[in-house]
Structure formats: structure tokens, C-alpha cells
From TrEMBL:
InterPro entries: PEP-util_enz_mobile_dom, PEP-utilizing_PTS_enzyme, PEP_util_AS, PEP_util_C, PEP_util_CS, Phosphohistidine_dom_sf, PTS_EIN, PtsI_HPr-bd_sf. It comes from the Bacteria. Residues 171-240 form the PEP-utilising enzyme mobile domain. GO terms for molecular function: kinase activity; metal ion binding. It comes from Gordonia spumicola. The lineage of its organism: Bacteria, Bacillati, Actinomycetota, Actinomycetes, Mycobacteriales. GO terms for biological process: phosphoenolpyruvate-dependent sugar phosphotransferase system. This is Phosphoenolpyruvate-protein phosphotransferase. Residues 23-142 form the Phosphotransferase system enzyme I N-terminal domain. Belongs to the PEP-utilizing enzyme family. The gene is ptsI.
Length: 571
């Protein structure tokens, strides 16, 4: 099938008789309908142009600058007042940057010395960017927000439309290359009802936020430029399509069906099981006590992945035994009596820790990361296991503990020994293809495995999981990835041991059915995905899941695997 179809006929690929259709990768199901909008351009502006403002104009330039910064701050604060949770916090903090006295003072000084207002805004921002970058940690993370404020103020000064996500008057569908983290914080799901991205994969930042907000979303839609801004269009997040000018009667009835589906999902409370009652644990991925307590409000039955390294990203020194024990206990207590799977530090590559210093590596994703740090820092990993054992004292359940980036049977054996010595339940993540191939021998050493589909896909396809250009390769529906999970599932059944999935694949409701068909019995992902996954699984029998898995395994491409599985599950 080609990406763009301009024939306005009704067919399986064009069920709403739209006049142009673009296909991408489906990531959040549901149907959205409304005008197509796009992100405002960042202002093109040459900060190096050597213009000097005459002295007589400098005061008025300072006033213009202060007024522009104030207008931007007011607009962001106004948006914050209509938002909730993290979005409201991010917007309020960004409004605070636009009002920052230090920044306004620095720009005003530059204007007083002759710089035009827009050039002064840019130069003052760079002073603060340098400072924030030197401070590191959370301050360094504010650099994107600082530059965002700069662009908004410069656009205001130059009389250009505000950059970033527009605030539409009616519910609309947003098309973009990809969304920056600062952009997604301002997303209002009542106004941005559908998302279509040209780049990005199922585990991209945009996909994760869309899942959290429940906004139908497709990514990796290569022909998105063909979709005209302003036209009335739809996004079908289940089929992975975006189209414009659909037949109104067809789309209205499909929207009704989609709404009913959304209500069913919202009403799903668990526990996880197939339609014929095969239990499948629906679990949450968490990063600390706060996220664990928030996850406990979702219909999940425990924690399938506690990414411990995320709690220590801003630490210069190794956390003490007491600090670690308190943190792990918080998560255990948030799920009292339920399953909690704690992962030892996955330091390195995309999650560097300052207290685990590695030599510069040309290829860190394949370097000393995860459990591999034990060769240089045995004390860090073993100290962490001591802290987990201390946290487990007196708890009503024994936590399961797993190691990331296991590649050999020896690594699994060594880890399992250390964990059992402390009275805990040992497992490993399977996210390196060698471990998948040897799943049978690895399961002989440990009590459970959990498949990290984000890395397993990256390493199987030799495609960087962070690359927006390689999204079609970093897709867990790739038949090669499914074939490896099949090997792992069969090994789990042979040993009668638990096989889970804790990568983003577990957040895809259709893929969840396929994974269960391959032998997976726990699915752990962002808590926001739990209802959609649980509801879809609850509508499919185990036999259906197995048939869908067989159909997906037979396919020769990711999209064919998706289509084949959907045909079985929706039959
Ligand atoms: C994975 O690789 O799928 C996984 C769950 O680990 P992380 O995303 O933290 O690397
Ligand atoms: Mg991983």
C-alpha cells in the first residue's frame, strides 16, 4: 500500500471515504475528528547581526521587551490555570522563566548598551543557558524551556505567530514532525483530540504522553505533508491512518462506536485476564515512591518494573544503604501484598549515573551498562541488593529482583546466586538477543524473566531506539522481535516459570493479546495504558490470542503482523 491515496472511494484502507489518506504506525487507539492544525514555526532570527539601537530609542526598546516578556508569561499562566497536574506545573514554571528578574535584567542591560530587543533576548538567554548547563542536573534540563521562552518572546517582539502548539478554538488534530517535551506539557486533550507525527516510534516521547492523556495518536506517518492544514480530518489511532474530508455520516457513526469503546476502557477495573479467564497480571512501571503511589490508583496489580536508576539521575555520589532502603520500601509499601519487581541499576547509555563513571565509550548502548557495571563496581550492585533485602524485612511480600542487560547464562547464574543469598526472588531482563536465544538455559538459572522490548527491539534490529528516523525498525511488531519472544515464551512454558514484558510493547492493547498468545503472563507499562490493555485482552480468548500470535509470527513485516493480528482479534 502506498502512503498517500488520493482516490475518494470507500475501501478497507479508506473506510471513511476520505479524499487523502496517509498511513503511519498506530500507537494510541480511538478515532478523533476535527480541523488539522500544525505547530507554529520557531522564529528565524539572526542574533549575530550587528545592529546598534540609537541611544534615544533604547528606553522604548527596554519597555517593548518587558511588555513582550510579560505578555508571554501571562499567556502561559493563563494556560496553566486551565490545566492540571504535571502540565499545569510545567506551564507555571515556564511562565516563571518569562518573568525571571535576572533574565529580564540581563536583557535590559544589553538593550541599554545598544542591542535590539530581540537580539538582547537571545543573548541574555544564552548567558543563562551556559549557567544552567554548568549547574547540571535538573537545572540543565530547564535549558529547553529557557529557549522556548526566548522564542516566544522574540516572536512577540517581531509580531510573528506564537511558536509551539497553538491553542485552537475547537477540538483539533495536531500534525507535526515530533513534539518537544516542553510542547507536550501544554497539550490539552479537550482541544487537541488527535495527534499525527511524521517521525517517532511507538516508544517515542510523544507516544508516551499521548498514551498518558488518552489522545488517539499515530507516529512515523511519512506522507504527513500531504495532509493540508485547516482541512477537516480524522485520525484513526487503531488503524494508524489520518485522512481529510471524510464522509460525514460514516465518520459520525464511527466516532459514536469509538466513544462507546472509550467508555468501556474507562470502566475497566481489572484484574487482568483473557475473555475465558486465563489470568494475566497487568502491572505498572514506576520510578520512585511518588510514581508508585500514583500508579496504585490505576487498575494495576503491582509493579512489573521499578527503574531504580531513575531515582538517582541527579546524584553525584552513591546513595547510602539507608537512603536506598527507605526508597525501595516506599515502593513496596505502595503495593502492600502485591507483586513488586525491582530492577537493579541500569546505569549507562541513555541513563548515565554520575557515581558510576565509565570511560568515554564510542558506542555506549553496547558498552558498560546495566549489570555489566559489576565488573568495575561490584560494591554498587551488591550494596543495592543489601538495601533491597533490608527493605523487604517485615514487608508482606518478598520483592522480585531482576538485572538489566543480561547477555550470558553465567551472568544470570551469578546474579541469581547473589539474590538468593539475600532471601529474594531472582530474575533477569531479556533485552539482549543472545539472552532471548538462550532463554531456556537462562530460565534454568533464575525464577522469572521479563522481556525489555525497547532494548530487545533496538539490538535485534540494530536500530537506535532514540532515532526518530528509524521508527519503522524500532517497532516491537517486527517479526524478528516476535520470533525471539516466541522462543522466550516457549522456554517459560517448559520451565513453568513466569515470563513478563515490561517494555513499551506491553502498552499496546493489540500487541498485548499477541504477547499473551506467545506465552507472556504479565504486562507492565505506564499505568495510563493499563485500562486499554486490560479491556482489549478481556475481549479475546486465550485461543484467539494464540491464533493472533501465530498470524503475526507468519507475517514478513511489522505492519503486516499488526494487520494479521487485528484481523484475528477483531474477527
Ligand atoms: C526495555 O528495554 O524495554 C526496558 C524496559 O528497559 P529500559 O526502557 O529502562 O531500558
Ligand atoms: Mg532496557
Amino acid at each position: 500500500m502506498t502512503n498517500v491515496d488520493s482516490a475518494p472511494t470507500q475501501s478497507a484502507d479508506n473506510p471513511f471515504a476520505a479524499s487523502a489518506i496517509v498511513t503511519g504506525t498506530p500507537v494510541v487507539g480511538g478515532l478523533a475528528y476535527g480541523p488539522i492544525i500544525r505547530i507554529g514555526e520557531r522564529p528565524a532570527f539572526d542574533a549575530t547581526a550587528a545592529v546598534v539601537v540609537p541611544e534615544s530609542d533604547r528606553d522604548s526598546q527596554v519597555q517593548r521587551f518587558v511588555a513582550a516578556a510579560g505578555a508571554v508569561a501571562d499567556r502561559l499562566a493563563e494556560r496553566a490555570s486551565h490545566s492540571t497536574g504535571v502540565s499545569a506545573e510545567v506551564l507555571t514554571a515556564t511562565a516563571g522563566l518569562a518573568r525571571d528578574r535576572g533574565w529580564i535584567g540581563a536583557a535590559s542591560t544589553l538593550i541599554a548598551a545598544g542591542a535590539p530587543a530581540a537580539a538582547a533576548a537571545a543573548a541574555a538567554t544564552e548567558q543563562f543557558v551556559e549557567l544552567f548547563t554548568k549547574l547540571g542536573g535538573l537545572m540543565a534540563e530547564r535549558v529547553t524551556d529557557l529557549r522556548d521562552v526566548r522564542d516566544r518572546v522574540i516572536a512577540e517582539l517581531l509580531g510573528l505567530p506564537e511558536p509551539g502548539i497553538p491553542t485552537p478554538d475547537v477540538p483539533s488534530i495536531l500534525c507535526a514532525d515530533d513534539l518537544a517535551p516542553a510542547d507536550t506539557a501544554g497539550l490539552d486533550p479537550a482541544l487537541v483530540v488527535g495527534l499525527a507525527m511524521r517521525l517517532g516510534g511507538p516508544s517515542s516521547h510523544t507516544a508516551i504522553i499521548a498514551r498518558q492523556l488518552g489522545i488517539p495518536c499515530i507516529v512515523a506517518a511519512a506522507g504527513l505533508d500531504e495532509i493540508p492544514t485547516g482541512a477537516l480530518g480524522y485520525v484513526d489511532g487503531g488503524a494508524g491512518t489520518i485522512g481529510v474530508n471524510p464522509d460525514e455520516t460514516l465518520i459520525s457513526s464511527a466516532i459514536e462506536t469509538s466513544r462507546a469503546e472509550a467508555e468501556k476502557i474507562a470502566a475497566w477495573r481489572g484484574p487482568g485476564a483473557t475473555a475465558d479467564g486465563e489470568p494475566v497480571l497487568i502491572l505498572a512501571n514506576v520510578a520512585d515512591g511518588v510514581s508508585a503511589r500514583a500508579a496504585a490508583d490505576a487498575p494495576v496489580q503491582g509493579v512489573g518494573l521499578f527503574r531504580t536508576e531513575l531515582a538517582f539521575l541527579d546524584r553525584a555520589t552513591e546513595p547510602t544503604l539507608e537512603e536506598q532502603t527507605a526508597l525501595y520500601r516506599e515502593v513496596i509499601d505502595a503495593f502492600d501484598g502485591q507483586k513488586v519487581v525491582i530492577r537493579t541499576l541500569d546505569a549507562g547509555s541513555d541513563k548515565p549515573l554520575k557515581f558510576v563513571a565509565n570511560a568515554e565509550e564510542p558506542n555506549p548502548a553496547m558498552g558498560v551498562r546495566g549489570n555489566r557495571i559489576v565488573a568495575t563496581y561490584p560494591g554498587i550492585r551488591n550494596g543495592q541488593l543489601d538495601a533491597i533485602a533490608a527493605a523487604a524485612q517485615g514487608a508482606s511480600q518478598v520483592p522480585w529482583v531482576m538485572a538489566p542487560m543480561i547477555a550470558t547464562v553465567e551472568e544470570a547464574r551469578e546474579f541469581a546466586g547473589q539474590v538468593r543469598d539475600r532471601g529474594l526472588v531472582p530474575g533477569v531482563m531479556i533485552e539482549v538477543p543472545s539472552a532471548a536465544i538462550l532463554a531456556d538455559k537462562i530460565l534454568a538459572e533464575v525464577d522469572f524473566v521479563s522481556v525489555g522490548t525497547n532494548d530487545l527491539t533496538q539490538y535485534t534490529m540494530a536500530a537506535d531506539r532514540m532515532s526518530p528516523e528509524l521508527a519503522s525498525l524500532t517497532d516491537p511488531w517486527q517479526p524478528a522481535v516476535l520470533a525471539l519472544i516466541d522462543v522466550i515464551g516457549k522456554a517459560g512454558e517448559k520451565h513453568g516459570k513466569s515470563v513478563g514484558v515490561c517494555g513499551e510493547a506491553a502498552a499496546d492493547p493489540l500487541l498485548a493479546c499477541v504477547l499473551v498468545g506467545l506465552g507472556v503472563r504479565s504486562l507492565s507499562s505506564a499505568p495510563a495504558a493499563s485500562s486499554a490493555v486490560g479491556a482489549r485482552l478481556g475481549g479475546a480468548s486465550l485461543q484467539r490470542c494464540r491464533e493472533a500470535a501465530a498470524a503475526a509470527l507468519d507475517a514478513t513485516s511489522a505492519s503486516a503482523a499488526r494487520d494479521a493480528a487485528r484481523a484475528v482479534i477483531d474477527a
